[in-house]
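Sat 14:20. Reprocessing the chain from the morning session after the first attempt stalled halfway. Input below, unchanged.
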Amino acid sequence: MKPDISVIMSVYNGETYLKEAIESVINQTFKNWELIIINDCSTDSTAEILAEFEARDERIKVHPNEVNLKLPTSLNKAISLSEGKYIARMDADDICLPDRFCKQFKFMEENPDVALSSCRFLTVKNGVYASGGAGGRCDNKALRAMLLVSNPILHPGVIAKAEVMKKLNYDTTLTCTEDLELWTKMAMENQKMAILPECLLIYRLHDKQITSTTLERQHTEVLKIQQKYYGTLLKVMDEEMQNFYISGIYFRENTDINKFLEYAKWLKSNAVKNFDKKDINYVLFEILAEYKRHGVSKADVLKAMLTFNPCFLAKEIIRRKKAAKKDITKCFKVANNIGLKQTAGTKEYPIFKK
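Finished this time. Tokens:
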């Protein structure tokens, strides 16, 4: 019998967390899966760990690379070997909660128009857990618009139709933004995406992650991806706009309210053909929320807020508070189930420890 879900993972020197990650797949309440693991020329004890699991469970299939191919090529290899109706992503340092595949499979079966979906999650770093994504919109139109300014889809939390993944694949020229490129490619092809508002994954943050070691490369790759996305659905940004976009919008390293307002005006005027006005306003509202969290003064945030339609602003604030409350309630339930207790943070952004 063919698996319903093919879980794909690539690992390079992942001995520290690998056992816990694989165990979390084995312990799923959903049983009809295969786990395809590409060992990308690891030099630590990864190979021995993988051999142990492969001998233990016939659903686990290990494929070693003869040379180090990097993540995008290794994931494409795993996709080509997959037999499931759906392909789910999993990283070698994250943890699936027991009902992840059960809930994601059910969601995809009940929403056949959705090509790809992800989920809510808990982050963990140095023993401290926090909720991820609370309050954000989960619908395709919002995600498609959010891709203009960020990556709203958690890569290791994804499940997608195998036929779509096999058609599009990851861009092997990229080194740390292959997921963003794939999501924008799906959006440009009108493949529907969604987020299941259930906390189903523990996403590990640590110093060795690609996202904390290759910032300059990320800048270059994100700009390359977004030039194509903007060029297809909006308009190509000039050099000055590009510079602020990367530093002030996407990565929010150099925030500037006046430049933000210029970008907002430009975005609104160029988005009318392919995006709804309310979705663009939602995106800009989310950027301002991030600005506030990054220490931008209340006066500057208020200055920008005053440019929004008051009716939209009131509705979005109410919607976000209600959605965040629901998401955090689910987060508390998950935290309690795995033996965590709130130790700091706020009601909106709780922090947990064991």
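Residues 8 and 78 are 6 Å apart (CA to CA).
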